[in-house]
Amino acid sequence: MRFFLCVLMGWGVCAFDSRRAGRLALSVPYPIPIMLTSGTFAPPLSQRATRVLLLGSGELGKEVAIELQRLGCEVVACDRYANAPAMQVAHRSHVFSMLDGERLRAVVALEKPDLVVPEIEAIATDVLIELEAAGQRVIPTARAARLTMNREGIRRLAAEELGLPTSPYRFVATAGEALEAGEALGFPCVLKPLMSSSGHGQSLVRTAGEMTAAWDYAQKGARAGAGRCIVEGFIRFDYEITVLTVSAVNGVFCCPPVGHVQIDGDYRESWQPCQMSPEAWDKAQRVAQKIVESLGGFGLFGVECFVCGDEVIFSEVSPRPHDTGLVTIGSQALSEFALHARAILGLPIPEVRLLRPAHSVALLGHLEGIPVISGVCEALAIPESQIRLFGKPECHGHRRLGVAVATGETPEEARVRARAMAACIQIQAMEP
Question: What is the pTM of this model?
Answer without folding.
Answer: 0.89
